[in-house]
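Hello Y.,

Per our agreement to keep a running log of every chain we model this quarter, I'm adding this entry. I've kept the format consistent with earlier entries: sequence first, then predicted structure.
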Amino acid sequence: MKNHEYQVRAIPTAHFLSRATTALPASFAEKLVGGGSLKQSSIQLGILALSSLAAIAITIACLVHGITIVFSHIYYIPIVYAAYYYLRRGVVISAGLGAIYLSLVALLTPATPEIVFAAVIRVVVFLAIAAIVATLAARLRAAVAAECEEQERLQELNREVRSRERWYRAIYEQSPIAIGVYNAEGRLTHANPAALDLMGVKDLDSLRGFPLFEDPNLPEDKKRQLMEGRTTHYQAQFDFEKVRSRNLYPTSRSGVIWLDRLITPIRDDGDSIIGYLVHAYEITERKKAEDALRESEEMFRTVAQSAYDAIVMIDSEGRVTFWNMAAVKMFGYSEEEARGRPVHDLIAPEYVQEAAEAGLRNFAITGTGPVIGRPLERTARRKDGGVFPVELTISPVLTGGAWHAVAVIRDVSERKEAEAALRKAHRQLQILTGITRHDILNSITAADGYMELYKDADPADREAYLEKVHLAIHKIQRQIEFTRQYEAIGTLEPGWQSLETIIRGLEVPPSISLQTSGIKREIYADPMLKQVFENLLDNTQRHGGAGVSRITVTAEVSDGDLLVTWEDDGVGVSEADKKRIFERGFGKHTGLGLFLSREILALTGITITETGIPGRGARFVIRVPYGKWRDAEEE
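Predicted structure for the entry above:
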């Protein structure tokens, strides 16, 4: 009866399992094995499916025949396989197989507590084994992945090393700088093609083993530095004749060249020297260019230093970079004082410095300006503050991408003085010609006319005509005397003259008192300065009126200038005559005295004006500029 029940119950069970394994929804099957992972390998999926179906089939057969123990071990095959390949999803698959196993036990056995308990224990073992296998498989996969990553990293590192080796070798082989490698004993082990070319050697074997410390072209002090373990860098001549005479190595080169060499000791991790690295390149052409440039600079400096004109060079910031001897003499600054200082601080008057600095800023940008490239006349300033006229030409020079300038400056003080003297001489000539041709001829004509009248006049009137002829002749005499004096103006060099001595030497009439104050001064003027004060005294006597009784001469300082004042208590000068009294020919006498005085004073920049009040006396103010007067030394 029992066996019959097993057979009866086995038929629907087999039918159920067949449907369960063949008619499951695809989405559920995918979720069961990890969603889509079954598609990764159809072979793995086939093996899992076949082993699972085989285990289920054997379970059915064994349970139908009452076997409940040994056959269950067949589940380890799909469980281990699923857990190994699908990890946590394999555990889910194992749980599904365990569920199928429990279902079969429940359907095909009496399902006693002992049988069910034993089946549950087996399912738990299934799941434990699946979990253990999945964990170990995951670790194995992680280890394998890590090993693969490490292998890939090592391969990438090897590729990078080989790439860098190729890169460094290309640099070494193609470098235009000669590179030589020496061992710890200082013998050459390798050299790049540039080194072979530099040494005139065809192959490395001809040069290999060359002793660095026996190189006759290596200076002794550099050898000592290398032996002390120090890097050495130097430029020196390399003589191939020394190489040939000592038969150091076969070379196709000859003569002497210039080399720039850097020799560096190579050290290991223990700081021990294991070799030497030599870099060298030929600088013969550069040395020739430097020598040519040095010769050119020396020639320029020689020419510039011997030039009569000042030559000044400035950089883009307006600072002096060159200052020749003529500039030293002209401005009073030594080359050491001038170099590096702003040129406008040295030679430009204060009133033009702001405009000059603005022009310099524009020049630094454009290289142009209103004073560039054409001769100009300007006022310059010396170290002592004195100003003088100059002629300068400024030329732009583009150096190192920045605009520099060269200024050639000539002191034209003497030329200006000569021009002024020429203009003065021309003016004097015109005046002398005018006196000779006009004034004297007019007086002669008047005298001649009076003589004709004298012949026809009554004896009683002849005396009057003779007096007029006599006056005309005296006028001619005075005019000739003026031409003599006027011609003498400026013929002698100006000098320092004592104002007190001149005033005290005037022949003042006893009827006029002379009062002085502050006249212990010296004035830099023409030697005819005394004539100026004699003319002022003559003017007081002739035009001051009969009531003149006092002359006052004072000298006082005002704004740095010396004001010398000549005052009398005569009738004074009318407002209408103040501006004309210094003109030639104006006045009641010859009209030449005050004109002559103004001309004498003007030679050294001194001016004279009349500032008196009409009716209260004449007042002449002589203004002596700063620098043209000084206090007299006490005796």
